[in-house]
Amino acid sequence: MKNYSFKYGRGELLCKINEKLILNTLLPRVAAPIIDVKEAVIRAIENPTASASLKNVIKKGETVVIVVSDITRLWIKTDQFLIHLIDYLNAMGVEDSHIDILIALGTHRPSNEGEKQAIVGNEVYNRIKIHDHDCFDSKGLDYVGESSFNTPIFINKRIVKADRVILTGGIAFHLFAGFGGGAKGMVPGVAGLETIQHNHRLTFNEGINTGLNPKAASNKIDGNPMREDITEICRMINPDFLINAVLDADGRFLKFVAGDFQEAWLEGCEIIREVYGIELKEKSDIIIASAGGYPKDINLYQTVKTMDNCLYGGKENSVIILASECSDGLGASEFLNWFQYKTLEEMEKALKKNFTVPGYAAYKAAYTGVYRKLILISTLPRDHVEKLGFLPANSLDEALDLACKLSPLEPKITLMPYGGNTLPIIN
Length: 427
Description:
This protein is α/β, with parallel strands linked by helices. It contains 13 helices and 20 strands. Strands 3-19-15-16-17-18 form a 6-stranded parallel beta sheet, with helices on both faces.
C-alpha cells in the first residue's frame, strides 16, 4: 500500500492504494516554465502571430477594452501578466483613463470587489476601471447580426463602441468547445444570453432524443459546430489583438501566445495537446480524480469538465471517484432543478425547448451518472449529491472501499491528480 495525495479546495486529500492495481497515472508532460513573465509577455506582444505588433495596431488617444476571465478561471493568473500589457499600452501613449477592463462572465454570477481585485491584481485594480459583463442586461448589449448557424449576435456595448479590443485568457481542454481561451472570451464571455444559449444548443444533434453531437467535444476544433460558430461570431466582431496563457499543472506559465485571436490561439492549443493529452493503451475499472483544487473545484458546474475528462479513461459502467470541494456550491441556482427529469431523454427534450448553460452542465453531469458510477467527495449536502445520481463519500479511503465493491476483483485503477487538465486519449 502507498499513500497518494489529491488536491481538494486549498488543501489535499490522502488515500492508501495497492500499487499493483494502478494501471495509469495521468500526469502532464514536463515542460520548462517561463522565468521572466514580463519579458515573455512583451516578446509575445512584439512578435505576434498573423497580426501586426500591438504598437502598430493601437494609436495614441484610442479607447481600449481588455477582456479578462472571471473568478472561476483564477488559475489563469491574469493578475501576473495583465499589468505588463497595461504598462506597455501606457508606453505607447494609451493612458489609464482610456482603458477599461471587462470581466467575461458569460452566464456566471457577478464578481464581488475582492474577486475583481484577485483577478486583475492590486495595482491594476486601483488604476483601471473594471466592469462585469451582464448577459441578462439588454440595455448593455448591441445586436450585430446573425451567424451562419442562425445564432443571433448580442455583444456587450463596451466592446462594440471601443476603438480597440484585446482578448486575454488561458487555454485548456474544454468539454464541448474543444479548447478554452481564444474566441471564447467573446462568446460566451461578453455575449448576450440569447447568443450564448443558441450557440450552446449546437452541442446537441438536431431532432428528438438524438443526444449529444460527438463533434462538440474536448480536443475537437474542425467540424465542431459550437466552436465554429464562436469563431465566426468573433471574426465578425474582429477583436484587434489576443494574448492567451498556457500554464502547467502547478500554475506556472509555459507560453504566451499573441496576435490574431484564432491563429495565435491555435498555436496554444497545440501546446495543450502536447502537455495534457495523455495516450493510454487500456481503459480502467476505477478512476480516481481531482478537479485540481481551487478554483477548478470551486463549484460542481466547473467540476463537470473533470467528469468529462474522466469519461475518456474508464470503461463503460466503470467507477469514477471525484474529489471536488465545491466551496461555492453547485455554481448555478437552477442546476439542481434540472434533475426533476428522470431520464436523459426527458432532460434533453426540456433543454432543447428552453436551453440554458447550467442546464447543459446538469445534463452532462446526469450523463456521467448514467454511464458511470460516480462517487463524489465534496462539501455539498448529501441529499443534493444523491439527487444528482452520485454516491457521496467523506474521504478517499471510504470512496475507494465503495468503488472496489462496485468493481471486478483486483480492479485496474487510473489516477488523475490533475483531472481538470489532463485528457486521456486511447490510441
